[in-house]
Amino acid sequence: MSAPAGPAADVVEQLLDARERAGRAWFDQQAPAVALVCHAMAERFARGGRLLAFGATSVDATDVAHVEVEFVHPVIVGKRALPALGVGADEVVLHAEPDDIAMAFGGGAAVQEGVAAARDAGCLTIAFARGMGAAHEFAAPTDDPLLAQELHETLYHVLWELVHVFFDHRGLLEGRTARAQHDSGASSFLYPFLAETQVDLDAVLRDVEASVVAKAAEAHALRVATLHENRDVLLAAGAALRTSFAAGGRVLALGNGGSCTDAADAVADLRTPPSGRGWRARPALDLSSCPAVLTAVGNDVGMEAIFTRQVIAHGRAGDVLLAISTSGGSANVLHALAQGRRDGLVTIALVGYDGGRILAEGLADHVVVVRSEHIPRIQEAQATVLHLLRRLVEEEPR
Fold first, then answer.
1. Are 370 and 350 in contact (CB under 8 A)?
2. In 3-state terms, what secondary structure has residue 362?
3. pTM beyond 0.85
């Protein structure tokens, strides 16, 4: 799809160019290290270790929660759930055990201390910032925290996806027995790794390295396609957000699972804007943030009502309801959007696949469709969409 022309498109193209420049070389450079970390994580998980994720700020907390839900709730068909736990940086010392993996987000003294506690306990340590003292540090090559978050999200998605490769080659994991070998014969050109022996770690690592680069390229291509295809919708949604905030409105954000963490990230970015840009803090509510409310409504009324009841309680005419769904068909999201419209809220929906019922039935005023069936890639593109909307709140295209 060709890039749109005109001054309004400049905002979109600037954002995409920055991601292309920062992302391509970084993932190419980091691919060998990422492959090694995937293998090391798989060995830890195979020995009964857990993934402990922690961070320093409310924005970091959304990545921590995203890691926890993605590893525990596998959306790759047939793949195992892996134990992951979000903890406070000061709680690492209470939880860390020798076979665990510690994954740190953000910087500062508290994160450094958490990494040190994990390292002292014998954990494999990973950090998404420099100078944290972790054995593996993956810091995105940018000063833009919104862009850095997107690149880090793609990277931890890739870690989650590719750690499973080594469970499929269990003979490559220390202390485990290889399965019987297979000769793919005439089909070897289609399935080259069926014939690999499960002691050929270098071959599998090379394959994983190539997959890291391919997945990063796929993520960027989907990001480009999404922003180009939805350009007019995004500009209109940005204008609706500016109008709402100017009139004293708020954003109410919601989603399930990984989309829940993306909604929380949108709220955190609105409340705590990146420093140095002169952006205002904006009022926003995360409708997934209170387990007591969610479990009370889910238990007493039903899961389909967990967001609707909160829209009734908190929504006011002129507010914006931001709903995120990879499927476009989650019942609790559909009910919340319907309630929002009844109550006079502006409705914005971010959806994947073909848009689902939300697009087909016109259930939101502004529907941004990420045309993919792969949930990690959908979420990565939606993160870019959310960051573009955050910019459009403050910087009206001219």
1. yes
2. coil
3. yes
Q: How far is CA 337 from CA 224, 261, 345, 350, 390, in A?
A: 27, 19, 9, 12, 21
Digit-coded pLDDT (tens) for 12-24: 999 999 999 999 8
Cβ neighbours, 10 Å, residue 108: 15
- Distance separating alpha carbons of residues 152 and 149, to the nearest angstrom: 5
Nearest CA-CA partner of 42 in 244, 204, 193: 204
Q: Which residues have CB under 8 Å from 372's CB, separation 6+?
A: 222, 352, 353, 378, 381
Burial track 371-382 (b if 16+ CB lie within 10 A, e otherwise) = bbebbbbbbbbb
Assess contact for 259 and 65: CB atoms under 8 A. Answer: no
Please list the alpha-helical segments (H only) found in the chain. Answer: 7-46, 58-72, 92-95, 109-120, 145-167, 201-229, 231-246, 258-271, 291-300, 308-314, 331-342, 356-360, 375-394
Cα within 13 Å of Cα(108), Cβ side: 10
Tokens representing 127 are 């950090």
Backbone angles phi, psi at 249, to 5 degrees: -80, 175
The residues facing 136 across adjacent strands are 126
Answer for the pair 144, 18: CB distance below 8 angstroms, yes or no. yes
Q: Is the pLDDT of residue 59 over 70?
A: yes
Each residue's pLDDT tens digit, 304-352: 999 999 999 999 999 999 999 999 999 999 999 999 999 999 999 999 9
Mean pLDDT score, 293-313: 97
CB 285 within 8 A of CB 344: no
